[in-house]
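Hello,

Our lab assistant flagged a job as stuck in the queue for most of the afternoon. It eventually completed. Since we weren't sure the result was trustworthy after the delay, we are filing this so someone can double-check. Below is the sequence as submitted and the structure that was eventually returned. Let us know if re-running is recommended.
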Amino acid sequence: MSKTTTDSRNDKAGLPPGALIHVGKKFAEQAKVSVIDYTNNQFIKTELTNVSEAADYIKSDTVSWINIDGLHDTKLIAQLGKMFELHPLLLEDVLNTKHRPKFEEFEESIFLTLKMLSIGENREIVNEQVSLVLGKSWVISFQEQEGDIFDSMRTRLESKKGNARVKGPDYLLYRLIDTVVDGYFLITDHIAEEVDRLEDIIINSPNERSIARIQELKKDLIKLRRAISPLREAVTTIQNSSSELFQPETSRYLGDVHEHLIQVTENIDNARDMLIDLRDVYQSGQNNRLNEVMKVLTIMSSIFIPMTFIAGIYGMNFQHMPELQWHYGYFGALALMVIIPVVMLVYFKKKGWL
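-- returned structure --
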């Protein structure tokens, strides 16, 4: 899978508003357009060979879900936008994969961009932008690459499970948003498992890698919060929207999504607090180990100080030192060097310092 960066923010500098420049990475050589068209009694799933074929779904009596994989093909995006009369500023936001989640209402459509998160091969959080546009009988989803978390939704539509086949495109939009938000719970569960694993490591065998992992998880939480906080605002705005594209019942469903986002936010806060506590535990453990080392060194120094003192006195080269002529002076000095440390060790033991 190619991850070559196509365009950057610098390419947009000086261009007029609505200029279609892809900001992000190129994941595939060719963009793909697929369509799921359904009613309560029929279901058709197809892949378009030419984007012009999507014009058949603009004013159909069915509900059409048009999905684009690959945002680097700006000509395809522009052609699709022209057919469905999408505003240039909407298309500009679609192509800017660094955009924060947002909601915007147009005359004939509703636009929402959000972040789809998943766990990568190296346990890192993978971030992909998904843009959704709601029309009178259709929903268009723009994704950076193939492969997503919407397969369960496609299966439910095909097998006619749930209410999606008897509902309108606004309900489909709600289900796509809800699926992305449910994916956030998988991320928070993954982080919670990592926190529990780190807790065992820090308590039993702390190392420098564990504190580095804490910092990595804190960055993941920041990334998750950046995806969720603006999305909560967007969902609230959709709920309060007076657009005819949204049925009142669907707005109530979105209230459930908003509650899920609040719960995910609480999970993030709990994980962040636990990481702070783990970091404090690690630092306390390091300080305790340092104190133990200093304690041992201090005791050893205390023991050798009197021995050094005795050796220093009898190492002086004065001629008139009475003990130097004593027959047992050497053995007496050695005995004194042994007795004093033993007495000190017994004293330290009684005091609980050992």
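-- support follow-up --
The delay was a queue issue, not a problem with the job. The result is valid. Residues 23 and 96 are 5 Å apart (CA to CA). Residues 4-284 form a domain with the Beta Polymerase; domain 2 fold (CATH 3.30.460.20).
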